[in-house]
Amino acid sequence: MSTSQFFQGVGRRKTSVAQVRITPNGKGTVLVNEIAITGEPTYLSPLKLTGLLGAVDVSIHVQGGGFAGQEGAIRHGIARALVELDEAYRGSLRAAGYLTRDSRMKERKKYGLKGARRAPQWSKR
To answer: What pTM, to 2 d.p., does this model score?
Structure first.
């Protein structure tokens, strides 16, 4: 395996999309939109679960949505890239729920209503 080889995964959550590239035999650097991340954010939990935290380089490009959606998209993308890296991780990642795409989206507003389900105020007189 050459050092220039990487494994890619795309994660989605709400309206966020994260493209994740994992390079094995790295120094443990994590880049999110070209910005180095220090510490141990919660979206790196798939790496922690597989024991690869600090052993691989992760490059993430995420767009759309808010903080929670982007965090879920990154976690999903990292899990998919880890399965590309080694198929043996699939069982533990699936059991932890990292490979399942969270399908919850915002419900659209309907005509005649003030929101998705909120009806106009009703007055008896």
So the answer is: 0.88
